[in-house]
């Protein structure tokens, strides 16, 4: 079993997860014995699955299982080296790791232990002897005697081959062995011919010609927090170019000494907290005087000094609070050049203090000032990684609550939501802390208010319990609209826009532009998804082929997350128009649903395209099936919601011809839809479209035998009188109607004579206000 860990694994995991602790312990002992005799080292896949099970065994309730798991991990560490195994043991506490390391030192394996990988730049030192010479007093060992792979002889090659052909085959086999040795971390000294220089390490990141000649590898130091030289890692997805003015300035110390008073610098270096606080007050006064005099200190210099002394780890909250107030003032001061680099240096330490009860308010105020200076997209992008790296559940909960508040205050316009959602899912929803999970659920609820039901597509990979919890939160807030932002953003997505636009525009089908959903689900080209063959399929004589074509369009909507580009050609509308006269009523219903989806999923309803299908859609209202009529009304409503101008430019011109149909279902549904769409517009003071073309058809509908038709016709008549004026409608009645028809219609028109005056005055006042 030890010769094949993959085959042995199925048996091991059966025993390692057994309910009897003695079986679990013996399974670990068996794995340890197998690891001690394996002829080859396991790959990363085997290391990962065995280490995960053994890692769980370290926390087992039985002491024997814990001890056997530690012994097994120690043997595995000896086999593959601690450097390879440690990444798979993240989260194991120090005591247990010490136990594993102790067993690793005592473990014995048949396979020679893997050598510790040498630094790339120190490798040439181990091969400093002249080419072709062995170490003094020793002979070069044969390749087969080493623990790594030996250069294989070409299989099936006869020794009688010409020398030049045999040399080529041997060189090819040697090159393959060298690549394998570099990949698996074995030494390659014995695989090289005596007269060949060593190849560059497989992990080299730059060509050898560009590397400086040095005896040892350069030491890479992590930049100090807040004073990092260069762009922070969180600068991606921030919507702005992070520009550090003094990132690599070697004379930064001199610049700080010449820009800031010596008394301030000395106060920062004082061990007495009151002296540091007084230095902060002096710095604030000095910066204010400088700004008033027009010779201000660059904010990035100030922030870099604050990161050094007193530092972001300052223990006194009053000193920290004053430092945050200085950052807030610099971000708000118009005369100061508070760059994105200064923002990138400020956001991480401010985010870390959001969980401090005494510093939460000044830190949040400084972050809000930076967001107003640029955009919340910049601040959120810079804050994502610092929040993700927090270990304290309380700090995580406070940071997510802060994000939730900022969504409400700034809105979601232009915001890169995908990194935020990914971070909140990872450290919030999947947290073991109840308070952190509750904050994350509240954040997702706010996001549901902002972008609508599409948020469910972002959480479908969570466990059922979390999904159920989120669905309850979504049901609770689903009917609550996103409030208007109360904070302005001077720079948003590279343009100077205010924060007046609501972040909930995406949920209501707004125009394509600063839609936050564009970051989560980019819009796709519908024509590229369905292909050019869709037109032939929609016009096929076989109804099954036509249905397959309609299903293909619906499938394209689903695959694009119902987000398509508004560049829909009129040819597709023409093809769908033919299906509105299909003999199969079910296909007509499907077609009407697709016509509605074309507008809702693209966020637009171009009047030229709507004009193609408007009359055919309205004629579907004459059908006796209520489901089909409801689908037609839904299509008309979708057009009106997506592009209100389509009602006036595309739908209304088709209404007179449609009302000529004597079908009471058509007249009732169409007139009711017109009244429901136009009445709210008039109530809000918006201009009504030209309804003069409806005067004559309305006279006919007012005489219809169906009482419901006459009632809805009166609703539209009132709007027509408001739009065209009482005199115009009354004169048309005098000219077009005679006898009993005139006697029945004229009183209805007269009924609106006095009501129209008040409505006109109110409408005029609204228009004047606009």
TrEMBL record:
This is Uncharacterized protein. It comes from Coemansia aciculifera.
């Amino acid at each position: 079993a030890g010769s094949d860990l993959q085959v042995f694994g199925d048996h091991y995991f059966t025993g390692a997860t057994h309910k009897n602790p003695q079986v679990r312990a013996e399974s670990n002992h068996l794995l340890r014995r197998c690891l001690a005799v394996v002829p080859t080292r396991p790959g990363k896949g085997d290391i990962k699955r065995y280490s995960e099970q053994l890692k769980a065994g370290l926390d087992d309730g039985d002491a024997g299982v814990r001890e056997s798991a530690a012994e097994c991990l120690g043997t595995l560490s000896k086999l593959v080296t601690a450097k390879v195994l440690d990444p798979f043991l993240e989260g194991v506490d120090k005591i247990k790791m010490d136990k594993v390391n102790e067993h690793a030192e005592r473990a014995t394996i048949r396979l020679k232990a893997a050598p510790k990988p040498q630094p790339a730049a120190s490798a040439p030192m181990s091969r400093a002897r002249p080419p072709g010479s062995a170490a003094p007093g020793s002979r070069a060992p044969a390749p087969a005697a080493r623990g790594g792979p030996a250069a294989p002889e070409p299989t099936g090659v006869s020794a009688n081959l010409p020398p030049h052909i045999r040399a080529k085959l041997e060189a090819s086999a040697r090159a393959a062995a060298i690549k394998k040795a570099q990949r698996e971390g074995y030494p390659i000294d014995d695989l090289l011919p005596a007269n060949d220089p060593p190849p560059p390490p497989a992990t080299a990141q730059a060509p050898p010609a560009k590397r400086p000649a040095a005896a040892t590898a350069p030491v890479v130091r992590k930049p100090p927090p807040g004073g990092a030289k260069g762009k922070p890692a969180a600068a991606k997805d921030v919507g702005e170019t992070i520009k550090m003015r003094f990132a690599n300035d070697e004379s930064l110390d001199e610049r700080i000494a010449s820009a800031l008073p010596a008394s301030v610098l000395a106060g920062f270096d004082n061990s007495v907290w009151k002296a540091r606080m007084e230095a902060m007050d002096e710095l604030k006064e000095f910066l204010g005087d400088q700004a008033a005099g027009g010779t201000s200190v660059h904010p990035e210099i100030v922030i870099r000094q604050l990161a050094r002394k007193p530092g972001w780890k300052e223990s006194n909250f009053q000193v920290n609070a004053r430092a945050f107030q200085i950052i807030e003032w610099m971000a708000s001061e118009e005369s100061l050049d508070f760059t994105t680099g200064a923002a990138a240096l400020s956001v991480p330490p401010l985010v870390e203090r959001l969980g401090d009860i005494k510093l939460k308010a000044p830190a949040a105020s400084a972050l809000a000032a930076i967001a107003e200076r640029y955009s919340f997209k910049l601040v959120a992008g810079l804050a994502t990684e610092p929040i993700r790296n927090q270990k304290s559940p309380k700090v995580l909960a406070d940071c997510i609550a802060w994000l939730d508040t900022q969504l409400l205050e700034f809105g979601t316009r232009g915001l890169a939501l995908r990194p935020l959602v990914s971070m909140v899912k990872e450290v919030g929803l999947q947290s073991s802390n109840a308070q952190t999970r509750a904050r994350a659920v509240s954040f997702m609820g706010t996001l549901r208010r902002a972008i609508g039901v599409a948020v469910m597509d972002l959480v479908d990979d969570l466990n059922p319990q979390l999904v159920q919890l989120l669905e309850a939160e979504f049901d609770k807030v689903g009917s609550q609209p996103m409030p208007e932002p109360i904070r302005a953003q001077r720079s948003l997505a590279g343009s100077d826009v205010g924060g007046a636009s609501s972040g909930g525009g995406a949920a209501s089908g707004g125009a394509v532009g600063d839609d936050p959903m564009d970051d989560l689900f980019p819009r796709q080209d519908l024509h590229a998804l369905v292909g050019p063959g869709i037109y032939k399929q929609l016009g096929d004589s076989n109804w099954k082929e036509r249905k397959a074509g309609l299903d293909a369009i619906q499938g394209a909507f689903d695959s694009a997350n119902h987000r398509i580009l508004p560049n829909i050609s009129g040819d597709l509308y023409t093809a769908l128009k033919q299906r509105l006269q299909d003999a199969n009523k079910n296909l007509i219903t499907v077609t009407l649903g697709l016509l509605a989806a074309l507008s809702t999923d693209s966020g637009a309803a171009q009047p030229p395209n709507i004009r193609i299908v408007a009359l055919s859609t309205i004629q579907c209202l004459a059908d006796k099936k209520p489901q089909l009529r409801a689908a037609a009304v839904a299509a008309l409503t979708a057009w009106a919601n997506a592009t209100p101008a389509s009602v006036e430019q595309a739908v209304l011109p088709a209404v007179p011809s449609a009302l000529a149909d004597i079908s009471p279902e058509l007249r009732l549904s169409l007139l009711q839809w017109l009244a429901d769409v136009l009445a709210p517009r008039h109530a809000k003071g918006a201009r009504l479209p030209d309804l003069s073309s409806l005067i004559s058809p309305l006279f006919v509908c007012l005489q219809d035998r169906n009482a419901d038709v006459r009632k809805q016709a009166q609703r539209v008549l009132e709007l027509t009188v408001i739009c065209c004026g009482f005199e115009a409608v009354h004169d048309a009645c005098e000219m077009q109607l005679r006898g009993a028809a005139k006697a029945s219609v004229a009183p209805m028109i007269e009924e609106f004579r006095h009501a129209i005056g008040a409505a006109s005055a109110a409408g005029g006042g609204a228009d004047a206000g606009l």
